[in-house]
Amino acid sequence: MKNKISLKVNTDLTASPQVFSWFEQINQPPILDKKIWWECQTLMMEGFTNIVEHAHRNLPIETPIEIEAVRLNEYIEIRIWCQGEPFDLEQQLQHTSEFEKNEQERGRGLKIMSAIADKLSYERTVNHRYCLFISKYY
After folding, report:
1. Which three-class secondary structure state does DSSP give residue 117?
2. Of 77, 95, 76, 81, which is closest to residue 33 (Cα–Cα)?
3. Is 104 exposed, middle or buried (0-12, 13-18, 19+ CB in 10 A)?
């Protein structure tokens, strides 16, 4: 089984319901373990929110964010392409408090994503873009 869906939205948190609704398509047939599906949804929304609030924070709202989700037999892959500044994901994860000890309202998303994703990376691609890659087994 392979199911692939794509979406392009503006750099705008008000697009979150659209992203969430679009992502629901990948859950057909439904993943039996509801906790795993909730984790996949969390990864999608944390990834999208981080791109809007951090990678694109100084860019116009019209700046596109491209999202792709692929469901394979045993896992889901999420790719979110952005045009933000360089960012060292591994270094940021090392310098961020564990989310249980982080009492700030912000800054916990990366740790949450790192804890529930099976693979998480942020890599430079062509055309001065970056790709947040997330993989989750189910």
Report:
1. coil
2. 76
3. exposed
Q: What CA–CA distance (Å, rounded) separates 32 from 107?
A: 31
29: cis peptide before it, omega within 30°?
A: yes
* pTM exceeds cut of 0.85: yes
CA distance 80 to 67: 5
Are 53 and 61 in contact, with CB atoms under 8 Å apart? no
How far, in Å, CA of 61 to CA of 59, rounded? 7
pLDDT digits (tens, 9 = 90+) for 22-55: 999 999 999 999 999 999 999 999 999 999 998 9
Report which secondary-structure segment, H or E, holds 35: helix 34-50
Q: How far is the C-alpha of 103 from the C-alpha of 62, rounded, in Å?
A: 33
Beta strands in the chain (DSSP E): 3-10, 64-71, 75-82, 119-124, 130-137
**DSSP helix/strand/coil, 89:** helix
Q: What's the CA gap between 48 and 15, in Å, rounded?
A: 10
Residues linked to residue 65 through DSSP beta bridges, in sequence order: 9
Helix (H) or strand (E) holding 102: none
